[in-house]
Amino acid sequence: MASIENLSQSYSNFFPAERRTRLPGGYMGKLLRVDLSTGNLRAQNLPEEPVLRRLWGGQSLAEYILLHELAIGIEPYDPKNVIVGMTGPITGTGFTPGGTKMTFVYLSPATRYTLGRGATSGFLGTSLKNAGYDGLVITGAAQRPTYLYIAEDRVELRDARHLWGKGARETEDILRAEVNHKDARIGCIGPAGENLVRAAMLVNDYNHNAAHGLGAVMGSKRLKAIVTWGTRRPRVFDKAALIEAGGRWQVALNPRVYTVAKRKKSVGHGEEWGAITKYNWRSTVITDENRGFDQNRVILRPCFQCPRLCPWDVEIGEGPHKGKVGHFNAGSEWMDTFYNLGFKGNDVLYLSERINDLGIECSHFACGAGLAFEAWEKGLLKADRTDGLALEWGSLEAAEKLLERCARRQGWLGNLLADGPKGLAQALGGEALQWVVHTKGGTPAQHEWRPLLSQMLRELVASGGMKPQGAGGKEPPPDLSYREKWGPLDPQRPEGWAWSHLLTEKYRQACGLMGGCWFALNDKKPDGLKSMIDSLNATTGWDVTLDEALDVGHRSIILQSLFGTQRGWLAEQDWKDVGPRFLEPIPDGKFKGFTIAKWLPDLVYEYYRLSGRHEKSGRPYRDTLSHLDLEEFAEWCQLD
């Protein structure tokens, strides 16, 4: 295979005026550059095939572009902050499960110094490719609220002043009618993005979002929405082989398919291990949190051509919210968000629809509001700071008003909630500094991870401004048995979990880089990984092996940490800059007393050593960069 050939020396030619190499299958061949300050819109060719073979797409290709185009020292809300959004080669082919992913990267508003990553499924990435583009590079800031219209026959910046202040649902409805294409796909921000809530989301296709601050960066650029429409389809290299591989992928996925019956009784992801977040992470025991769910009407809303059926709509069938409708994605973090504030039953689903419409990331609000409720309970926060609002656990009035205040930065508390739980703890002072949950100023995904060693390690070493990846199991995937000879691991002991996490992080990264959603990945079944790689090869015409796929995922991991290194991140911050409550022994339930803290920092150190980085600085060693063809970043490597 050809080398990347020291791309840093030729980045000016990274997007060739004329292609010299084959465009692999699955790619449309173009990305769209959008300068909101000048209004300039122009298409560019994707890089040459050797580059695409190394980076694939998604986060890896996007962060490589960002590393070259975002100057060090820029603040998240500076017009010079850059948003890069990329699909992957299997996005939108329609022949694989989970071929839906589009990933955006930018400087995180939550941490201010690490990579922000917002990844979404549904139909937005597919629709962008239908319009003829694989990705977007967005720079500058518009003078007034604007939306970006991308169609197969035109690209325009349009006035969005009539949409400013509106929620995500109403915005999507108005824009679909305005562009007069019922199949148009819309990704937009709500009031939270407009008011620069640091973890505001992009919300798309009703049931989906790209979280972790993308909405805030869009708001700083006065970009209300991205509308896409088209009828083009990506060309594939070998359709018959792709149909065969995609069918095998679906067989491996079948045990994980959602059903209406499951949605009508499930309390969310935490029921898999038996713990949820309650009362600001002070209780974990599942009781009757799902009461009334069985009375609801549920409709499954699959992503483009994906058989797992993760997203769903609900019409509440009982109680004070009867008749209200909600639109949800796969993760159920929004359920734990409101369990964390003392809610049960359909109050949870009602409030979950409210937070999605406003465009606030769930864990950002859950950890901030949970801290505020606890501070009220213990007398540290009083009515003079809440504008008279009583923050009682399970109070619907309190939760709804705090959501609105956070989204619109109203009042002392609303403004601090918008900035995040770490800042709120510092403003409250005293014992509140011990009650807070955060990771480097961002927040962990809102599930009760503390009983699970690999998942906790994943949350700690993630950038803090992105949804973490990784978190391996007790045994390696069957498809990797030719190289992985370990397990089963003991969930009560630290040995082996750092490698299990890193290995999983590599192949989950690879799944996303090709344009797949790892919610549609069942690595625990034979052929779960191999069918995925065979799908990539049939799409592109490549001959990628599982070992190469792991290297591609590893490359993306290193690019992610290089971005943070350039801006002052150190690996030691992963376990030092953490809200103390997140590392406390579990307070109750079957995991009572368990904590990862007794194995810190050793687990974090081990993870970085295994990934070819210095355990305290996080900088990659020169050998790591050489192995991954990233020697152009040698000035940021660890020298000893």
Descriptive overview:
The protein has 23 helices and 15 strands. The protein has 640 residues and is α+β, with helices and mostly antiparallel strands. The strands form three sheets. A six-stranded mixed beta sheet has the order 2-1-6-3-4-5. Strands 8-7-12-9-10-11 form a six-stranded mixed beta sheet. It has a three-stranded antiparallel beta sheet with strand order 13-14-15. α2 (58-69) packs parallel to α20, α13 packs across α14 and α18 packs across α22 (602-610). Mean pLDDT is 96; it is low at 1-8.
The residue ranges in which pLDDT falls below 50 over 5 or more consecutive positions are 1-8
Total number of helices: 23
Separation of the first and last Cα atoms: 31 Å
Q: How are the strands ordered across the major sheet?
A: 2-1-6-3-4-5
Global geometry:
globular
In terms of quaternary structure, the protein is single chain
Query: What is the arithmetic mean of pLDDT?
Result: 96
Counting helices, strands and paired strands, the structural category is alpha+beta
| Main sheet attributes: strand count, strand direction, barrel closure | 6 strands, mixed
Our estimate of the beta-strand percent is 5-15%
Fraction of residues in helix: 25-40%
How many individual β-strands? 15
Question: How many whole angstroms does the radius of gyration measure?
Answer: 23 Å
Structure characteristics:
34% helix; 6-stranded mixed sheet; single chain; alpha+beta; disordered N terminus; 640 residues
